[in-house]
Amino acid sequence: MRLFSFLFLFLLLLHCSGTPSSAPESYSFDRLNLAHYPEKIPPSIPRSFLPESAVFIDSSELRSGFANARESYLLLESTNTKEEIEKTLEARSAMGDWKLIQKDSEGSKTVYLFEGFLNKSMSVLVTDQGDKRYAKYFFKKQSSY
C-alpha cells in the first residue's frame, strides 16, 4: 500500500505540473518528499555517481524513519556524453563500497545495477536522446536499520 501511494503521489506531481517551469517545487507528505527541479538531491544517492554537468529534474524520497531513506529516485539531464557518464559510474564502482552487479546496453540505453553495504541497491538508467543525456537513479534499502 505504501508503494502504491508513493507511486500515485509521484505521478500526480509529474502530471499536475501544468506548464513546464524550471522553478524549484517541493512537496512533503509525512515520510515522502517530492521535488521538481530540486535544489539538492536525496542524501541516499551518492554524489560521486553523478556526472559533473547535471541539471536535476525530479527527485523523491521515502523514509522509513526520521533519518533513514528506504527508497529514493533522481532524474537528471546532462550535456556529458553517454560514454563519459558510463565511465563515471564504472570508475565509482571500482572504489569498492558499491559493487557493480550487472550492466546491460541496448542501443541508446544502458542499465546498471549496484549493490552497497547493508543491503542497499541502486539502479541507474542512462539514455541518450540527441544532444541531451538523461540518467535515472533508483535507490532502495532492504534492511530496517
From TrEMBL:
Keywords, sorted A to Z: Signal
Signal peptide: 1-22
Protein name stated in the entry: Lipoprotein
Species per Swiss-Prot/TrEMBL record: Leptospira idonii
Lineage of the species this protein comes from: Bacteria, Pseudomonadati, Spirochaetota, Spirochaetia, Leptospirales
